[in-house]
Amino acid sequence: MGGERDVFAPQDVLMGRTVQVLLVEDSETHAALLSQALESPGGRVAVRVARSLAEARSVLGGFTPDLAIVDLCLPDGQGTELLPPEGEEGAFPVVIMTGHGDEGVAVEAIKAGALDYVVKTPASLAEMPHVVERALREWTQVTERRRAEEALRQSEERFRSFFESAASGMAIISPEGRALRVNPTFCRLSGYSEPEALEKNILEVTHPDDREETRRLYDEIRADRRRVVDYEKRYLCKDGSVTWGRATVAGVFGTDGALSYFAANVQDITERKETEEALRLSEERFRTVFNNAAAGMVTLSTEGRFLEANEAFCRFIGYSREDLLSLRVPDITHPDDQEKTAENYRVLGSGQSRAIDYQKSFLRRDGSTVWGHVSVAAVPGADGLPLYYVGLVQDITESKRVQDQIRESKQMLQLVLDYIPQRVFWKDRDSVYLGGNRNFARAAGVEAPQDLVGKTDYDLPWRREEADFFRECDRRVMESDAPELHIIEPQLQASGKQAWLDTSKVPLHDGEGRVVGVLGTFEDFTERKRAEEALVEANRELDAFVYTVSHDLRTPLTPIIGYAEVLQETCRDRLDEQSLDCLAEIENQGRRMLALMEDLLVLAKVGHVQRPAEPVDLGAVVAEVLVGMGSLLAEAGVAVERHSLPGLRVPKTLLAQVFDNLIGNAVRYAGAEGASLEVGGERTGAMVRFFVRDHGPGIPAGERERVFEVFFRGTEGKKVQGTGVGLATIQKIARCYGGRAWLEETPGGGCTFWVEMEDAPATGQEPQGGG
User: Fold this and answer.
1) Nearest CA to 755 among 697, 679, 699, 698?
2) Which residue in 412, 432, 414, 411 sits closest to 424, CA to CA?
3) Which of 20, 261, 288, 768 could potentially form a cystine with 493 if both were Cys, beta carbons 3.0 to 4.6 Å apart?
């Protein structure tokens, strides 16, 4: 320790921080000397002493020294065992001490990782502060070198990883232009393997048309006129194809200013270039079509101002191209179509639709009107809203004029057909309806003749067997090319009633004489046939009535009843009980005969009463009938349950007659006291039907078909007072108004009488028919 040496200042090495030293020494004397030397005034060193390997390891468990001085020979092992592995987290420098100098031992200690080797002598122990300072300085240098090496390694690793995994092609190129290194993406882009690419010069993989530009740009970098160039070029691939790339090339220069290499980054822009080329060709084609199209073509701003117009549109509208560019769409739109046009462009502008197609009228420059079929498409921007519009206008002025003439002709023909009283229709070869007149449409149950188009007989209200019959007749007419006239056929009407038709069908021919369909017409003679049948029946019944009335009914009836009544009043005191009973029986029988005569008169008058203009409330009619039967219902103990009843255009007097008969009969045959009756009805199309239901003894099955005959009373009827004319009158009323009456057995016992009538307008029967 010479006085001429620098004072030990390890804090200089550690930038003023106290140096933490671990001393592992089993000799107390040596440990004390070393501690005293290291902790001398002027030095900031803290020494921690351990006597053995075990104690040292225990200290190191919670403490990392800046330096460890370790005796080679310790009681529990060799000091080199404390040497930390190189590069381990928390490593520290170690100086090995030994009491005996041995070069071999020193070499082994240094190899094991010791920073220095000191032989314990008085002089070396005194010099230990300088050993520590030297060791710390050397350790700092080693640590910094290791950090720099690690940073360089990580940087190279990051570059390698980036270079190899980059989505763009990358290459390192020598100053002479030869590839030194290429990444996988560049290999995929060029089609060359890495060894093949490294044999190529940059100009060899460049398209001939781009080589001069490439050479010029690389020369500018070599001359240091530019450090980075960015340009687009074509690359020749291994298979002969061409790939477009955007090349960014930078020159990397050494410290001496000389070019070391080129770093190139190549982005594949082939798809973009192909898209640009396709767009250019598309624009060229559009321009060719636009300028040479026979139809008018225009481009419009989103405000409706003309941007471009071809010659065809200028001829159509009568304006020059220059004049049109100062106009907007409303300026050439007819007033009648302004609102429609504005709405269509509103829909386009809002993005609700990309294209519209419609017809409109235009105002030419000379004030005349022309018609165009307009197709307008929006060209969208990045936000999806229109940038501008492209319009196509076809001149349909002449076809519009012809269409108007054809429409007027068709309207006149339809008008004539609609005023023909017969039902007229026409079909194609497949028996599909092509049209008909209004009377036929009404018969078929559709709103208007045009609603028939496209339908078949299976779509209309006829029964399937009727539709089959109609189509078979169509087939015969078309295949034989011969008409079939006055075909008598039944048909179910849209109103729900059955009709009889007198139909004629003829084949339809085109201009060349080929059969293309069938034309049919028919008349509904249902009412005539029904009237004829009803007249025959009425005459028969009327003859029977006249015969009966003329034979001892009406003439003697009044005096018989009158005398019997007078004798009972005036001779009551002079006649015995038996005589009075006889007079009472004469009066009763006379009145029964009078009731029979009245029923027959009602029967005779059915069908001669005009329909009312408005429907009659059946519920009100039933209510009035029940009021009139109040005493009868009370005496029989019968309850009447009333359901809903629809209205019906039939004279109220006749409806009252029907319900009076049906309810009266039901009360008389109701059975035990406390029985119930039901009255109700429903509507099905134009037909209304109602019922009266009782739960009495019923009518034998063998008599149900005869109960509506005049004077037939049946087995049970003979037990109750009546004339045998009431149900016959009901049947006649029903038939006179397009319906019928019938009887059904009530489930559980009893009878249900049904009456059905057509609810026709007061003006007469609606004409009906079918195909």
Assistant:
1) 679
2) 414
3) 768
Predicted confidence (pLDDT) per residue in 654-683, tens digit:
898 899 889 988 888 776 667 889 999 999
- Domain count for the chain, please give it: 6
Q: Are β-strands 45-50 and 19-24 bridged in parallel, bridged antiparallel, or unpaired?
A: parallel
pLDDT at position 545 is 60
Helix axes 577-605, 726-736, angle to 10 degrees: 10
| Structural domain includes residue 768 | no
Residues of the chain short of pLDDT 70, as ranges, are: 1-16, 40-43, 86-90, 101, 155, 493, 535-536, 538-540, 542-555, 557, 588-610, 671-673, 711, 713-724, 762-771
Supply 15's token pair. Answer: 């930038």
Q: Are 372 and 394 in contact (CB under 8 A)?
A: yes
The two tokens of residue 742 are: 């019938």
Q: Which residue has the tokens 């099955």?
A: 701
**What is the predicted pLDDT for the residue at 1?**
40
**Residue 445: both structure tokens together:** 């149950």
668 and 744 part of one domain:
yes
Domain residues for 560?
A: 530-601
Contact between 64 and 36 under an 8 Å Cβ cutoff? The reply is: no
The residue among 490, 524, 558 that closes a domain is: 524
How far apart are alpha carbons 689 and 645 in whole angstroms?
Answer: 9
DSSP-assigned beta bridge partners for residue 520: 425, 505
Same domain, 616 and 753: yes
Residue type, 10: P
User: Which uninterrupted H or E stretch holds 378?
Assistant: strand 369-380
Cβ-proximal residues to 188 (8 Å cutoff; 6+ apart), any chain = 169
Contact status, residue 139 vs residue 133, Cβ threshold 8 Å? no
Contact 427, 517 (CB under 8 A): yes
Paired strand residues for 78: 73
Question: Helix (H, G, I), strand (E, B), or coil: what is residue 424?
Answer: strand
* Contact present, 492 and 466 (Cβ < 8 Å): yes
- The dihedral over CA atoms of 287, 292, 295, 298, expressed in degrees to the nearest 10, equals 30
Any idea which residue has 């005996």 for tokens? 100
Q: Could you tell me the two tokens for 520?
A: 């049919």
Asked whether residue 206 falls in the same domain as residue 122, the answer is no
Nearest to 531 by CA among 322, 736, 256: 736
Return d(Cα 106, Cα 102) in angstroms, integer. 6
Sheet holding 242-253, edge to edge: 179-182, 169-173, 259-268, 242-253, 228-236
How many beta carbons lie within 10 A of that of residue 315, not counting itself?
A: 11
Looking at residue 89, its pLDDT comes to 59
What are the tokens at 125? 């122990």
The Cα–Cα gap between 418 and 451 comes to: 14
